Here is the input.
Amino acid sequence: MEHSVFSYSKKSQLAFSVTGAVIGLMMIILSVQIYVDITTVLSAPSIIGKDFLVLSKEVSMLSDGNFSEDEIVELKSQEFILDVAPVEGNRFESFVVADMGTNARFNTLMPLISIPDNFIDNLSDDFSWTPGQTELPVIIPTSFFNSYNFGIAEASKSPKVTKELMATIRPKLRIGKTEWYNIRIVAFSDRFSDGVIVPDSFLNYGNEHFASIENKKMNRIVISALNIKSPLLQEFIESHAYVANQDKLKGGKITEFMNVLLPVVLSIAAVIVLLSLLTFIQNAQLMLAGSDYEVGLLGFLGYAPLSVSKLVMKKFNRLFLLILILALPLCFILKWFINGQFEYNLGINMGLSISWATILTGSAVYFIFYVAQFYMIRIAVKKKIAAS
Here is the structure.
């Protein structure tokens, strides 16, 4: 009976329906999976519990680029910000001289900054200074280290140095015109790149005795948050025209982009799936229209419409399972490709796992296909048995 009934179906039409359903279902479950992955990655708090971000302001004819106390209070009041602190800079001349090897001498003006200890990464136990002490512990930004190796060293044909070797170098720092200090590198910072980090006590001493500018101004601040990729934080920064490292904020922009793109993709996929379902239903109707005798005979032999409907539905059910089985591997392959692009271009690794939300979505589409098709077949079978 099953073979006889399906002999009236159009194989080309079924193949078209299966192809469309596979593409549509793959687009739906892939969209769901990408959304779950991005949401999970970008909403996850930092591994160390906090993320840090340095903020500044654009200098213009109408703004001196400094933060006011009211702005600091407003920042601290935001629920997505844990703490706020100013990045203090030197208001005096600071000049560094260092022997980097044979015939290699490094000397330049060097910006100095101080930050509260709880904001500093790789904080050393001996990172402290008291007035009268001639040795000054400093934390060097990794960006400075890279700038020397891949800029200054190559330009001057000097040998490159490792972090371990650089830590043994004893540069000298001159502040003002007369005071010299022996620098001791105690750590390297990946978090800050605005200047060499010195103890707060040293910067206060230098600003108090050698500052060329009397007024203490806040032109840079550092904030800590559980997730600096939060769209709420990005929206706040943009609404106040603050300047921040855009690489660290790219997660929020990705979220905004996905929130716009995914509904469009899901809508297109839903239309494709719906058209495929309608084609399946049409195919079933054409198939039953050519098998009046077989369906009527089963009714005459005492088969209930439900039993006949299940018999007709058996092959469609196998087709629907085939659609699901084909769509899931395609989703995995495309996810692998997209994850590679995200990791290469954005530094975001979403992993290759398939979430339960994706599996449930695919199962839900399969269930909708099955129920809709079975319902239409049952109605058609009941009419044919009643007519016979």
